[in-house]
Design brief:
Elements (H helix, E strand, L loop, with lengths): L8 E6 L3 E2 L12 H13 L5 E5 L5 E5 L1 H10 L3 E6 L4 H13 L6 H18 L7 H4 L5 H8 L4 H9 L5 H8 L5 H8 L3 H14 L5 H12 L5 H9 L13 H7 L7 H27 L1
Parallel strand pairs: 2-4, 3-5
Antiparallel strand pairs: 1-5, 3-4
This protein binds a DNA duplex (20 and 20 nucleotides) through helix 7, helix 9 and helix 14.
DNA sequence: AAAACTTGACCGTACGCGCC
DNA sequence: GGCGCGTACGGTCAAGTTTT
């Protein structure tokens, strides 16, 4: 959360003086959620003022409250209570993203561009958080900072950000729930022209790429061997088999190798392996419990 | 139960920057 | 230019969860 150090005032602003935030990543859609917001404003008025920042030309840029504005426009309301904050563009981006990320329903594409905008804004702000001794112990990278302020891990934030490299059509498929997050991340690594091929093939035959299929596509692309035929072949196959997992059970081994026939060093290796795996499991559990 | 997907963690590499 | 350091990010793994 960005702390508000500037003076803030609540005031009624005519909606004609309001401008949407430039390139804001959120989609204001007229759906059921919007209908209930309209209903709520109709019966109770606007409970939370929108947040805006003043522009040089006397107008105000909306930091948070695009959906409330849309609802007011639908109801024919001409003025709206607003908190006016003196914020730089970068500060406004961080505030806008934070305000919207806590919504109940947020599309993957919205999250992706929100995280990306916030990351770019934090980088541009160039804050040195590594200089004071008080902060020395909790030095954070930009992505870690975003992760700490959201309820997701650094990896997850990076995955969402990689979705911004998807072509709009594939991103729409992610929003529609046709492609899951991790397959989408794999597709984002493909060249845009290849992504378009994938989209066209999926769209034509109403197919949805699975994680394993997208991994195979990406590997082929890395080798420079992913063309239209290869994509068709991968997409037309049955969903891939579960990835290979090697599980060792001592009882199984004993069944095939009587005790005196199994070389001692192999037994030692296996025991060592199992021991390491147990330690790893315990460590993971401790990490989880600590959080 | 198998398959698909999610999630967190870790590692390696590339890059930019300041310093010598 | 070489070096050390911090940072970003891609790749991978393993375990957990959800879906079929």
């Amino acid at each position: 959360m960005t702390e508000v150090k500037e003076k803030t005032t609540v005031t009624e602003l005519p909606i004609t003086a309001l401008r949407p935030f430039e390139e804001h990543p959120y989609k204001v859609v007229d759906n059921e959620e919007m209908a209930s917001l309209v209903e709520s404003i109709y019966t109770q008025g606007i409970l939370t003022p929108i947040t805006v920042r003043p522009l040089d030309n006397g107008e105000y840029e909306i930091v948070s409250g695009h959906r409330r504005l849309f609802a007011c426009q639908k109801l024919g309301i001409t003025a709206i209570p607003a908190i006016v904050k003196e914020l730089s563009r970068e500060e406004a981006i961080v505030a806008m993203v934070d305000a919207n990320l806590h919504r109940d329903h947020i599309l993957p594409s919205e999250k992706a561009f929100a995280y990306k905008m916030k990351l770019d804004a934090i980088k541009r702000q160039g804050e040195r958080t590594d200089l004071t001794s008080a902060q020395l112990g909790q030095r954070l990278t930009s992505v870690e900072k975003i992760a700490a302020e959201s309820d997701e891990s650094k990896s997850q934030v990076q995955r969402y950000i990689s979705l911004t490299r998807l072509i709009p059509e594939l991103l729409q498929m992610v929003d529609d729930g046709k492609i899951a997050l991790t397959p989408a991340v794999e597709l984002s690594k493909l060249h845009h022209l290849t992504q378009r091929l994938v989209y066209e093939i999926c769209d034509m035959d109403d197919l949805t790429p699975s994680y394993s299929q997208t991994v195979r596509m990406r590997k082929l692309a890395d080798e420079g061997a992913l063309g239209e035929d290869a994509i068709r072949e991968i997409m037309s196959e049955e969903k891939a088999n579960q990835r290979e997992r090697i599980v060792i059970y001592m009882d199984d081994i004993k069944q095939y190798y009587p005790r005196n026939m199994l070389p001692k060093d192999i037994v030692a290796d296996i025991k060592n392996l199992l021991h390491k795996r147990r330690l790893e499991q315990m460590r993971r559990k401790e990490n989880r419990d600590a959080r």
